[in-house]
């Protein structure tokens, strides 16, 4: 068979193309630093990130973060009292709306749909009772681009502001605002389910880390394997502008409708109507007109991520992880094999061993009451509050974070299934609070995904965690990576395995053109067949929970990379913002560089990992299958074959920081890099050891409540 010159030419062109696009260099490339080295080192001081956390109680990091939070708040209070001023947060001044609302780049699309993966995002609220009241008042809620109109202190908004009314949080308190963070608000609602998890909300808001008189509030959140603290002042965004800032037409309409009042009374009435109480807030709020904990937690969550834009759109399971330090697993309702087992071993344990969220994908239905949806919103997250069996009926109690729009099928408010006995037995009252009961069968039929989060607070001192972070090159082909982890457990135990990449939400705009999806296989050393697989559960992690015998295990990684050349490169974002948004770039750049500093590159990397057979049977009960994202990101177009300069400038260059966390019950695991035979051993982190030694010996009493 003769090979024609045209065929040979095409082959040569392809060979040149692949040679330029795919480097054969095995050296691991470190992701670029955003900030100049001298600025980065000055800003971090002694707070250098650690890539290794040796086995310790899961409460150690939390306790350190709380103590730091309380110390920062105490220092702020002392300074404000000396100066006779309320606290003003210079690092997150709500009057600077560009800084506090917008990320460094235009945000990505709100949702990723197409079947199996839903990133719940922007609220597409129908006209509701609350909206009608405002809309009918001469459209005074219209603001430019649907942004807040102004920011005011809590004392200017609320008549009798109170952080917790009744000294504790309730699920009825929580209402989503104009931010597209239903994933976060639904996660917040889950924390009020406290059968076995008492006062989870209190753990986010340490009692000694706020001073309502001074206007300073401290919170703690979970990020990349450790707890971190954040401080905010008491300014909140309002939907409507001040009376004097209304445009002439709007104020003319208001004055005409209140012509019988003198000007000062008209002005005061305007403030009472549009700028007073929880209904005046632009973002999340409490149902009570004087309660403040929901908007303040949301504000702190936005600040720690850089801005409100960065918390728009997300996975509910990741929200619960951020608020509890738990580990989430994602289930597709269509893939659940044994629905009876999922009920008895899963949902019936809500509030006991696990917390549950659920969500729908976008069906493009304009009205949730049409086309069989029966009040269940599209592309929206919900909280699962309870699951019970009552007189042979399997029932789920669900909350819509909007605080309105409910299921109207069987067991909905006012349906024929309710009797006085049922209302008493289930402790239910009819009302439009967004809380409703629905049958388990309808629950599985109406919702597409369920997130189950293992919470470690219930036996806080029995669980231990070890973790190790590293940087790896991600091959274009999506093969299993040459880098692997191994870990050893000394006794048989329930083990939770989490493989994570960095939470890029913290440095939105500086993520570059690459995105990654993680999964892994768990093996015994020297064995080809795997014990269990861990699948992606959201954007960040792959997880599994399994009972393991004592011994050493190997974790083989599959990190699949995608590049979208329509997204901004990191260097281009820096060039575009270094003058116009200097402070924002420094803030987000520091978060980026500190995160990537966790990924220490190991000196010794195994040359090759034995090929893994994907045909071997699995033992994991997770119903999902290993699949790439439903809509792969576009690859670069094929360049002109003889333009070698063009071909080489955009070669595949993907490096990802990943971390392995091993949670064990009543024992401690140790982690190493590589296969057991040639592994790089994990050293104890000196920084963490000092922190752990600083924990009081009576810590068990401090956290037992």
Write the layout of secondary structure elements.
Layout lengths: L4 H17 L15 H8 L7 E6 L1 H25 L13 H5 L27 H7 L14 E4 H4 L16 E2 L6 H9 L9 H5 L5 E2 L4 E8 L2 E8 L1 E4 L9 H10 L5 H12 L10 E2 L6 H13 L10 H9 L2 E6 L6 H7 L8 E6 L21 E10 L2 E7 L20 H6 L9 E5 H7 L2 E6 L8 E11 L10 E6 L3 E9 L12 E10 L8 E5 L4 E8 L2 E13 L6 H8 L4 H15 L47 H6 L5 E11 L4 E4 L6 E2 L4 H8 L5 H5 L2
Antiparallel strand pairs: 1-15, 2-7, 3-8, 4-5, 5-6, 9-14, 10-11, 10-14, 11-12, 12-13, 15-22, 16-21, 16-23, 17-20, 17-22, 18-19, 18-21, 19-20, 23-24
Protein name: Calpain catalytic domain-containing protein
InterPro entries: Calpain_cysteine_protease (IPR022684), Papain-like_cys_pep_sf (IPR038765), Peptidase_C2_calpain_cat (IPR001300)
Family: Belongs to the peptidase C2 family.
